[in-house]
């Protein structure tokens, strides 16, 4: 590659974690207490960043308040004072004590929310398929074994147990044949979502091992292939300048040529992630092979809890040819106390941002909670018989019949998750008895018939 006769080197990916983060020139200039916090918190919650994030996304003049710094570097308040002090003391002890202390703290952080480990893993021919999740009737999640890391880790990530070495908490599969057999046995599934980690961390030869069998097998019910990724934000060169980028785009083109809808489920948490020439070129490359890019993010206190930021993101995403898809409420795991805001504030923020964009950006749905019974949208604050109520509905449910049924909770300005709300009338929400039977009978395939 040359520009006006001068050879330009391709960007080379370089990762930083606890073992080498002090080599980052900007980090060397941080006050000692910030470096100490990175070390302590980074031994509990996963920490990994890279040269693209450091050089192009973080405004080091704004550190420690810069949103991208908070998004990718551990902060002291991501642990509450007791666990922080406990971990700080453990770091003066032998390695075994450090590991045991970290794992003990991790288990207090609700490592697998929304029934991921207990209720989403399908049972097939007497075997639990631990590299898959089948929560909603039409969609199955597949965790490719080679894709269970990322170019950088988000400090809020609800899948943080994938990265901390606690193998009992990890989802991963290398068996694409099991996926195919499961799809053949479940024709109600028309949508496969590759997730992680980040599937885009894989070399194309590994990715082919999962995608090509889907295209070459007899799967008439399979209509859509989705790939969940943060690579557009954290390493956009993956799509146009890595050594196998051309082969990757060729593979994606083969999906659309086969008549399958290819959706890139892109995570953008702040407008700055959309601002670089590299991300714009990557988006153009993906759209050029027929991929549709849908965007999503949780609301994150200390990062994007601002209506202007969301309106700017949605507008710019549409300008670049992406489709705003979801605004989530940060899940009840990990450092939720650091990132979470109340459900009422989340709705107010969504409403404020939604009012600032045109209809093309109003494809976005939110604020949405990915809860154990399903995806619950906060519709707003209503008044019933002179009393305030929070109005909600299911966008997805373990029982498909729950979807789009409005229901109400007592008004609560402090609640940050569904289990903190109380029904407006009665002792239970309408779905609770059915959900309890689902758990009791250990049903694993979410169809309406399961709840009849």
Describe this structure in words.
The chain is of the alpha/beta class and 452 residues long. It folds into two domains: 14-106, no CATH class; 123-451, Alpha-Beta Barrel (TIM Barrel). It has 15 helices and 17 strands. The chain has helices spanning 25-28, 32-42, 51-57, 67-72, 81-90, 95-106, 176-185, 204-216, 231-234, 245-257, 277-288, 307-319, 336-339, 343-354, 432-441, and strands at residues 2-3, 6-7, 15-16, 49-50, 123-124, 127-128, 132-136, 139-142, 191-194, 224-229, 261-267, 292-299, 323-329, 365-370, 374-384, 387-397, 407-410. The strands form four sheets. It has an eleven-stranded mixed β-sheet with strand order 7-8-9-10-11-12-13-14-15-16-17. The N and C termini lie far apart (62 Å). Mean pLDDT is 90; it is low at 1-6 and 445-452.
